[in-house]
Amino acid sequence: MSRGTQGGSTSEPRARLLGTATKIFYTEGIHAVGIDRITAEAQVPRATLYRHFAGKEELVLAYLGLADQGIRAQIATAQASGESPVDKVRAACRSITDGIQSPGFRGCAFLNAAAEYPDPAHPIHQAVLAHRQWFLETMTELLEGAGCAPADAAGRHLVMLRDGAMAAGCLFDPRLISETFLGGVEGILRTGTDSATEPNRTG
Question: Do 37 and 30 contact (CB within 8 A), yes or no?
Protein backbone atom coordinates (compact mmCIF):
# COMPACT_ATOMS: atom_id res chain seq x y z
CA MET A 1 0.00 0.00 0.00
CA SER A 2 1.43 3.36 -1.01
CA ARG A 3 2.00 5.89 1.73
CA GLY A 4 1.57 8.78 -0.63
CA THR A 5 -1.71 10.33 0.44
CA GLN A 6 -2.23 12.56 3.41
CA GLY A 7 -5.70 13.78 4.29
CA GLY A 8 -7.07 12.32 1.09
CA SER A 9 -4.85 14.35 -1.26
CA THR A 10 -1.55 13.52 -2.95
CA SER A 11 1.37 15.40 -1.45
CA GLU A 12 3.47 17.64 -3.68
CA PRO A 13 6.76 15.79 -2.99
CA ARG A 14 5.11 12.46 -3.84
CA ALA A 15 3.73 13.88 -7.08
CA ARG A 16 7.17 15.22 -7.98
CA LEU A 17 8.82 11.88 -7.22
CA LEU A 18 6.26 9.94 -9.24
CA GLY A 19 6.41 12.38 -12.15
CA THR A 20 10.19 12.18 -12.26
CA ALA A 21 10.22 8.39 -11.95
CA THR A 22 7.59 8.06 -14.68
CA LYS A 23 9.63 10.13 -17.12
CA ILE A 24 12.91 8.33 -16.44
CA PHE A 25 11.53 4.79 -16.15
CA TYR A 26 9.75 5.15 -19.47
CA THR A 27 12.59 6.74 -21.42
CA GLU A 28 15.58 4.89 -19.92
CA GLY A 29 14.22 1.69 -18.37
CA ILE A 30 13.52 0.68 -14.78
CA HIS A 31 16.61 -1.29 -13.79
CA ALA A 32 18.90 1.39 -15.23
CA VAL A 33 17.58 4.03 -12.81
CA GLY A 34 18.37 4.12 -9.11
CA ILE A 35 16.68 5.85 -6.20
CA ASP A 36 19.48 8.42 -5.91
CA ARG A 37 18.92 9.56 -9.51
CA ILE A 38 15.17 9.94 -8.96
CA THR A 39 15.49 11.89 -5.72
CA ALA A 40 18.16 14.15 -7.22
CA GLU A 41 16.09 15.02 -10.28
CA ALA A 42 12.92 15.41 -8.25
CA GLN A 43 14.84 17.56 -5.75
CA VAL A 44 13.41 15.54 -2.89
CA PRO A 45 15.48 14.09 -0.01
CA ARG A 46 15.88 10.32 0.01
CA ALA A 47 14.16 10.14 3.41
CA THR A 48 11.11 11.87 1.92
CA LEU A 49 10.87 9.21 -0.78
CA TYR A 50 10.71 6.51 1.87
CA ARG A 51 7.93 8.37 3.66
CA HIS A 52 5.81 7.97 0.51
CA PHE A 53 7.05 4.68 -0.94
CA ALA A 54 8.39 1.57 0.80
CA GLY A 55 11.09 1.31 -1.84
CA LYS A 56 11.79 1.28 -5.56
CA GLU A 57 9.39 -1.60 -6.23
CA GLU A 58 6.47 0.36 -4.80
CA LEU A 59 7.50 3.38 -6.87
CA VAL A 60 7.52 1.22 -10.02
CA LEU A 61 4.06 -0.10 -9.16
CA ALA A 62 2.83 3.48 -8.73
CA TYR A 63 4.33 4.36 -12.12
CA LEU A 64 2.50 1.46 -13.76
CA GLY A 65 -0.68 2.38 -11.90
CA LEU A 66 -0.47 5.89 -13.33
CA ALA A 67 0.08 4.47 -16.82
CA ASP A 68 -2.91 2.15 -16.35
CA GLN A 69 -5.15 5.03 -15.32
CA GLY A 70 -4.05 7.05 -18.35
CA ILE A 71 -4.78 4.25 -20.80
CA ARG A 72 -8.17 3.51 -19.22
CA ALA A 73 -9.11 7.19 -19.54
CA GLN A 74 -7.84 7.28 -23.13
CA ILE A 75 -9.93 4.26 -24.15
CA ALA A 76 -13.01 5.56 -22.30
CA THR A 77 -12.76 8.92 -24.08
CA ALA A 78 -12.35 7.18 -27.43
CA GLN A 79 -15.36 4.95 -26.77
CA ALA A 80 -17.49 7.97 -25.90
CA SER A 81 -16.56 9.63 -29.20
CA GLY A 82 -17.78 6.71 -31.35
CA GLU A 83 -21.36 6.84 -32.60
CA SER A 84 -21.73 3.20 -33.60
CA PRO A 85 -20.19 0.05 -32.07
CA VAL A 86 -17.79 -0.22 -35.02
CA ASP A 87 -16.88 3.46 -34.63
CA LYS A 88 -16.06 2.80 -30.97
CA VAL A 89 -13.56 0.11 -31.95
CA ARG A 90 -11.99 2.37 -34.55
CA ALA A 91 -11.80 5.31 -32.15
CA ALA A 92 -10.12 3.19 -29.47
CA CYS A 93 -7.57 1.96 -32.00
CA ARG A 94 -6.94 5.47 -33.33
CA SER A 95 -6.18 6.55 -29.76
CA ILE A 96 -3.48 3.86 -29.72
CA THR A 97 -1.93 5.19 -32.93
CA ASP A 98 -2.07 8.74 -31.54
CA GLY A 99 0.23 7.49 -28.78
CA ILE A 100 2.54 5.74 -31.24
CA GLN A 101 2.94 8.97 -33.21
CA SER A 102 3.43 11.17 -30.13
CA PRO A 103 6.83 12.77 -29.39
CA GLY A 104 9.05 10.68 -27.15
CA PHE A 105 7.22 7.41 -27.80
CA ARG A 106 9.27 4.49 -26.47
CA GLY A 107 6.89 1.57 -26.83
CA CYS A 108 4.43 0.12 -24.35
CA ALA A 109 5.29 0.85 -20.71
CA PHE A 110 3.80 -2.51 -19.70
CA LEU A 111 5.61 -4.62 -22.28
CA ASN A 112 8.82 -2.82 -21.37
CA ALA A 113 8.27 -3.54 -17.66
CA ALA A 114 7.47 -7.21 -18.35
CA ALA A 115 10.76 -7.55 -20.22
CA GLU A 116 12.61 -6.23 -17.17
CA TYR A 117 10.62 -8.34 -14.70
CA PRO A 118 10.06 -11.69 -16.45
CA ASP A 119 9.18 -13.68 -13.30
CA PRO A 120 5.38 -14.24 -13.52
CA ALA A 121 5.15 -14.24 -9.71
CA HIS A 122 6.80 -10.84 -9.27
CA PRO A 123 4.36 -8.07 -8.22
CA ILE A 124 5.45 -5.85 -11.11
CA HIS A 125 4.87 -8.64 -13.64
CA GLN A 126 1.51 -9.29 -11.98
CA ALA A 127 0.59 -5.62 -12.42
CA VAL A 128 1.44 -5.91 -16.11
CA LEU A 129 -0.75 -9.01 -16.48
CA ALA A 130 -3.67 -7.32 -14.69
CA HIS A 131 -3.51 -4.34 -17.04
CA ARG A 132 -3.31 -6.56 -20.11
CA GLN A 133 -6.26 -8.64 -18.93
CA TRP A 134 -8.33 -5.48 -18.57
CA PHE A 135 -7.27 -4.32 -22.05
CA LEU A 136 -8.09 -7.69 -23.62
CA GLU A 137 -11.51 -7.82 -21.96
CA THR A 138 -12.29 -4.23 -22.94
CA MET A 139 -11.38 -4.69 -26.59
CA THR A 140 -13.19 -8.04 -26.74
CA GLU A 141 -16.36 -6.39 -25.43
CA LEU A 142 -16.04 -3.61 -28.01
CA LEU A 143 -15.57 -6.13 -30.82
CA GLU A 144 -18.52 -8.17 -29.59
CA GLY A 145 -20.64 -5.02 -29.64
CA ALA A 146 -19.48 -4.41 -33.21
CA GLY A 147 -20.80 -7.85 -34.21
CA CYS A 148 -17.51 -9.72 -34.42
CA ALA A 149 -17.72 -13.46 -33.81
CA PRO A 150 -16.05 -15.19 -32.17
CA ALA A 151 -15.29 -12.05 -30.18
CA ASP A 152 -12.68 -13.70 -27.95
CA ALA A 153 -10.56 -14.69 -30.95
CA ALA A 154 -10.98 -11.24 -32.48
CA GLY A 155 -9.93 -9.65 -29.19
CA ARG A 156 -6.77 -11.74 -28.97
CA HIS A 157 -5.97 -10.90 -32.59
CA LEU A 158 -6.38 -7.18 -31.98
CA VAL A 159 -4.19 -7.25 -28.85
CA MET A 160 -1.51 -9.10 -30.79
CA LEU A 161 -1.61 -6.47 -33.55
CA ARG A 162 -1.46 -3.72 -30.95
CA ASP A 163 1.57 -5.31 -29.29
CA GLY A 164 3.35 -5.51 -32.63
CA ALA A 165 2.50 -1.90 -33.46
CA MET A 166 3.73 -0.69 -30.07
CA ALA A 167 7.02 -2.55 -30.50
CA ALA A 168 7.55 -1.45 -34.11
CA GLY A 169 6.39 2.12 -33.55
CA CYS A 170 9.65 3.15 -31.90
CA LEU A 171 11.81 1.30 -34.45
CA PHE A 172 10.27 2.28 -37.79
CA ASP A 173 8.19 5.10 -39.26
CA PRO A 174 5.39 5.54 -36.69
CA ARG A 175 2.97 6.89 -39.28
CA LEU A 176 3.41 3.83 -41.49
CA ILE A 177 3.14 1.51 -38.47
CA SER A 178 -0.08 3.26 -37.45
CA GLU A 179 -1.58 2.88 -40.91
CA THR A 180 -0.65 -0.80 -40.97
CA PHE A 181 -2.18 -1.37 -37.53
CA LEU A 182 -5.44 0.38 -38.43
CA GLY A 183 -5.60 -1.62 -41.67
CA GLY A 184 -5.26 -4.80 -39.63
CA VAL A 185 -8.09 -3.66 -37.35
CA GLU A 186 -10.32 -3.18 -40.41
CA GLY A 187 -9.45 -6.73 -41.42
CA ILE A 188 -10.51 -8.03 -38.00
CA LEU A 189 -13.78 -6.13 -38.24
CA ARG A 190 -14.51 -7.46 -41.74
CA THR A 191 -13.63 -11.04 -40.88
CA GLY A 192 -15.50 -10.98 -37.59
CA THR A 193 -18.69 -9.52 -38.98
CA ASP A 194 -18.58 -11.80 -42.03
CA SER A 195 -18.26 -14.82 -39.73
CA ALA A 196 -21.15 -13.60 -37.60
CA THR A 197 -23.49 -13.23 -40.60
CA GLU A 198 -22.39 -16.29 -42.57
CA PRO A 199 -25.12 -18.96 -42.52
CA ASN A 200 -24.32 -22.32 -40.95
CA ARG A 201 -23.50 -24.94 -43.54
CA THR A 202 -23.74 -28.65 -43.01
CA GLY A 203 -22.47 -31.55 -45.05
Answer: no
